[in-house]
Amino acid sequence: MQRRQFLKTAGLGAAGVAAAPFVSSAHAQETYTWDMVTSWPKNFPALGTGANDFAKRVEQLSNGRMTIRVHGAGELVPALEVFDAVAAGTAEMGHSTPYYWRGKLAASQFFTAVPFGMTTTEMNAWLYHGGGQELWDEIYAKHNLKPFAVGNTGPQMAGWFKKEINSLADMQGLKLRLPGLAGEAMNGIGVSTVNLPGSEIFTSLQTGVLDAADWVGPYNDMAFGLHQVADYYYTTVWNEPTATVETMINLDAWNELPEDLQDVIREAARASNLAMFTEFAYRNAQALETLVDEHGVQLRELPEDVIQALYESSQTVIQRQVESDDDSRRVYESYSAFQQVMRPFSDIGEYAYFKGREQVGGQSA
Amino acid sequence: MQRRQFLKTAGLGAAGVAAAPFVSSAHAQETYTWDMVTSWPKNFPALGTGANDFAKRVEQLSNGRMTIRVHGAGELVPALEVFDAVAAGTAEMGHSTPYYWRGKLAASQFFTAVPFGMTTTEMNAWLYHGGGQELWDEIYAKHNLKPFAVGNTGPQMAGWFKKEINSLADMQGLKLRLPGLAGEAMNGIGVSTVNLPGSEIFTSLQTGVLDAADWVGPYNDMAFGLHQVADYYYTTVWNEPTATVETMINLDAWNELPEDLQDVIREAARASNLAMFTEFAYRNAQALETLVDEHGVQLRELPEDVIQALYESSQTVIQRQVESDDDSRRVYESYSAFQQVMRPFSDIGEYAYFKGREQVGGQSA
């Protein structure tokens, strides 16, 4: 199912005019129309609209030479089949998140989120300046894909629980929706985890299939109405201190693009990364206020023994994966070494500032 | 001194082919060559190279239709005359930072940094999603300029001091290089401040014209060799929890651009914003390690009484400005209301995560 359609227009030869040193580089104006399958409901706040925004940027920056048709989850392929669909060329592009593919590509998880790992600033610094992108390219290329970061949710909350958690014992036997490495870490402390597409969380909580669920943060969680089916919102950030949203591109389609359209996609992705991250920051802040003030949501933090147990379990899960999978070992070595360099500056920079701002008495003027 | 040169090539008519719904939108291919004057030495780490990277992005995304010639500080105009030069059309663009223009436009400072104010995440969220860009457009338009955020240094350190500071008394009479609102706040606690271009800091410290100086952070400070002329590096983040790097464009030149090249500049600026911020994060982390391990730099934090006095002085300075200048009042009302919404989420998100990561025992696996 190749949907690419194109139209060759007359090529413009370079007009060599001696008096004017700047010649138009317009060459054969081939146009491209691509399909992008996504893991989000069509127009879902920040994620689905972020896919739309990215598509719009590509269209603008290519001056109309490239059009991307955005498909919501389930329209062409189900939410969790985006990777396979793009690898196979069913669609030219996808919009999703790497850790959804842990079943077929364990190392993918390090590009989304590591429990107790890097922040958004650190993760983006690694991808753009620390060799992260190159490793990501390499492991996705084995699946005929080219990836880019195209957004970020920022730090995610631990999630919605139907019952209050007062100790590690209260976690035993819970059924929890939580993807990625963090889901495995939860399994290690006696929780039973599953990954479900976001659209299935509400009903699963309501019917008792789930006792608890992480989704994203206040903005997206409220959009699915999760506050209506679980009383306690555990805000502790541990599982996803950042979460990369990706676009992946079928490698054959990518290689057929002229270089300037490859530039357009790469830079539209970078611009979209910042646009989505800052949108989440603001909309989460607004939604948090609404959840507490208008819906009476109870905010909670996970007890210390639970956090400590999750930390230890996370380290075990990561070590096990690194020892059994060569790609995971190479990616995590790079990730881990980078984090080691970044931490001292993050601590005297962003972290120290938060502490200082709190100490002097809160809000400015 | 208008340097714009252009070449009109033959316009491409839309080729209407019934079977192909996607037509090339190529229209008259006018090319543009613009000059960009900057406040940084040519190729200066992250700031000067960031100007180059932005220019390169514009060239790539415009597919060669737009070329930007980057000029270091002093090549066409001095570092601190960028605003006037671009407003007058001496160059089409500038690359600098808004708070350098406080003498002619007090409200500009809120777009760079507010002491004890918003973080980088919060500032970018305000600019992109909270009405900050619209206010910035409005006040710069009065000076015939169109601004965009094109980078960010991230949190800045308090700076280099030749003598140790143990109390508020030690600050009295110090001569300090520090621009913007923070400089005024320092004046309020008995310090004498001045703004100098970065390139003049080293000599001013060496000859005793200055007792102390802020510049940016480890990466840029080391590039100017500031550790060679001052023994103590005060890392306290208070004056610039973030610092926006701007591009400003002569409004007549901007209005002459076709819409697709306006799109290119806007999105190249957004992509450059994230690229520079993450580059600073990583390079600062590396440079911090080098400063401490190889150059034996002494890291210090400002004493609590100094920080408290600076906080109070900052509030006074901001209030005074807001009461005396209508643009400042309007901009700060927006800034301040936005910060009020953002803070609770920043605190349970990014800030809480830093605390949690520290508590569980530092580095991941």
How is the secondary structure organized here?
2 copies of one chain form a homodimer.
Chain A: E1 32-38, H1 48-61, E2 66-71, H2 82-88, E3 93-96, H3 120-129, H4 132-141, E4 145-152, E5 159-161, E6 175-177, H5 180-187, E7 192-194, H6 201-206, E8 212-213, H7 218-223, E9 232-234, E10 244-250, H8 251-256, H9 259-293, E11 298-300, H10 304-324, H11 326-359
Parallel strand pairs in A: 1-2, 1-3, 6-7, 6-8, 9-11
Antiparallel strand pairs in A: 3-10, 4-10, 5-8, 5-9
Helix pairs in contact in A: 1-9, 3-4, 4-11, 5-10, 10-11
Task: Briefly say what this structure is.
Two copies of one chain form a homodimer. With 365 residues, the first copy, chain A, is of the alpha/beta class. In chain A, 43% of the residues lie in helices and 13% in strands.
Which key phrases capture this entry?
six-stranded mixed beta sheet; alpha/beta; metal-binding (chains A, B); 13% strand; D-Maltodextrin-Binding Protein, domain 2; 365 residues; 11 helices; DctP_fam (chains A, B); disordered N terminus; 2 domains; globular; homodimer; five-stranded mixed beta sheet
